[in-house]
Amino acid sequence: MNDAYDVLVIGGGIVGAGVARDAAMRGLRVKLVDRADFASGTSSRSSRLLHGGLRYLAQGRIGLVREASREKMTLAHIAPHLAAPMPFLFPTRRRTEWQRWKLSIGVRIYDLLCGTGNLGRCSTLSVSQMLAMLPGLTSDRLTGGVRYFDGFTNDARLVIDTLRSAVAHGASVASYSRLVEGCREPSHWRCVVVDERAGRAADVLAKNVVNAAGAWASRIPHSRVRLRLTKGVHLVMDRKRLPVPEAVVLAERRRILFVIPWGERVILGTTDTDFAGDLADPTADLSDVAYILDAVNQAFPDLHLGPGDVISTWAGVRPLIAPRHVRSGAPSDISRAHQIHMSRLGWFEVAGGKLTTYRLMAEQTVDRIGEYLKTNLPSSRTSTTPLLEAAPQWSGLLPPPFERDVVAAICAEEWPEHLDDLMCRRTSWHFYHGYDQQMARTAAAWMAGALGWSAERTREELSRYEATYAPTSPSAL
Ligand SMILES: Cc1cc2nc3c(=O)[nH]c(=O)nc-3n(C[C@H](O)[C@H](O)[C@H](O)COP(=O)(O)OP(=O)(O)OC[C@H]3O[C@@H](n4cnc5c(N)ncnc54)[C@H](O)[C@@H]3O)c2cc1C
To answer: What is the pTM for the complete model shown?
Structure first.
């Protein structure tokens, strides 16, 4: 069948983007579709960390930590603009499970598991060293702590740059295009994809289909994926209110919370609670906000942080592989391992994992397709080929300057369809600055100029953005 793609990827989050890039780089004809904006699912709602997962090391999941640690180093190599080394201070306290002597050993193993060395070397800190690094930290039961390194990224930018790379290698990508059906024909799959903007359905023919729909994976036709969905929430605050010099790990309760410096802001998160709501719109409830603020206030009791300090929030749904007893165990105990399998001939599913391991998940998925096709596909080159051929316009970790020319470049090269695509996922302006009506109006006018929107369309875009992001409810602080 000549007009059939080799691979149709369902889902333009980080995993789908990675599969599209890997497959295109091996010479396959690839099409990727996403029901909404690229990265609008979990892949723009993470903690933005490239990490092996110190917590999983404590759970004895050494293979998982080694795999993710090596991927962390690979991403730092292929996408240095989206993988900044980030030191973490982890204060330890008496009568908790995180003992200083255990962690001192743990962070050394953590460094070793990176293979060729971590992004920075770990160290053990005394009580006075920890208090000198973190003035305002309560000294209650403090025994000192450790300092270790992970990477800081921008999840949505990682998706966009991965897609740009996929397209540069010949892939075709379409946002706001939802797969609704897939029928097997003798030599290929006939998939029905609805263009959400025009409301029109069209057939896409593909020899192989990859379900990379994240939290939606079990709702895709022919799916055998069983997921346990959990929600995680983040808050953004001005760094002057919580002036940490480096990232901080708070293990005040059973869960671990991070305080992550982000330019003039800090990101606080995250939670981990079972989720059964609307996958497209998980939000931070008042109780989530209170939980995070409470934990930070316990660690820094003089700061008295309150909901009024919160500039913005985001919430995401983790697509975790369901253990055999679906409801058993705390959400944070569920493995972040991934699974790849073929549910029907030529219909693949890739699920679970995390942002850090997406490249490996993609490589293994395309290897499986090659095995099924019984063709000698060239080996994956994604672990050594830089993500972008030329240096990017800006690092991507912090929002770009608020300028018309930037907006024009994004509109030309990065497929934003709506104002919130620009404000939230291409630039992070919304999360960094909070909801700002004047900023939204200016950005909408710039987008209108670049994309030829009418006055009516521009008004509609502002209303759409306001309806979702204006702080009328706790979910959009
Ligand atoms: C709170 C939180 C914090 C996290 N922090 C980290 C972290 O710091 N580091 C880390 O490594 N990992 C982290 N993770 C995990 C990581 O974010 C996810 O594993 C990863 O983003 C999942 O990517 P994905 O591509 O599988 O899913 P998604 O990004 O959700 O992509 C799936 C896509 O499929 C599309 N789709 C769904 N149905 C259809 C359809 N019918 N047709 C077409 N498209 C469809 C959706 O629109 C969506 O864009 C975190 C997760 C959460 C929730």
So the answer is: 0.97
